[in-house]
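One record is kept unedited as follows:
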Amino acid sequence: MMDSIYEVNGKAITRFFKRYLVVIIITGAIFAFIGMGISLITPGIKYSANSALVQNDNNYVVVRLFPNYVKSSSFEKQVKKAVGESKWRNQTYGEDYQVSASTASSTTTQVTLTVVSSKKAFSKYLITTVTKAFARNVKKSLPRANVSIMNINSKPVVFHLKVQLFKVGLIGFLLGALGAALFLLRKMVFVGAVEDNRYISDVYGIPELGSMDVETNRVK
């Protein structure tokens, strides 16, 4: 017999999941989708855009220096100056942005520029500005640099969208499933109807002593 009404035995757990597992999963999934939907419209979303450039003479050694050049104070000043002279100069997101450069390998002749900001339209403007500034000025700091613009992606996307949606979705699923499980467990133990002749034994641990049929005669 159960020592406490809060004690749950194996039979009760089995009965609970057989009856409510699908409901718990569906509830968790609903909360996950709600959470992911809200995360896409709430403040804090950042948008990234990128472009690709290539070193014309296949000098991959100088390409390795491009990521450091993008982080240099001289290049940062060039970008800030361009932003400061644009229509974005008085906007908060006109000062809060990230610029980076990356290469696929140590022997590649291509470099990818990436910008990240909290405004989609600003990211679109920024990637064009950054790319043109890079192509125009990199040779001044790195004389062997000789780059051409391959493409500029003019459609910014949510930065790390898959990772963000996965995290929010997972948290939403766990909260929804846990909430549903606790609610349904309380319902089964405290307010649930006796469903069959094994209910008392499974849920409360009280051995089944027997059963009897009760007929109710309606008074006409």
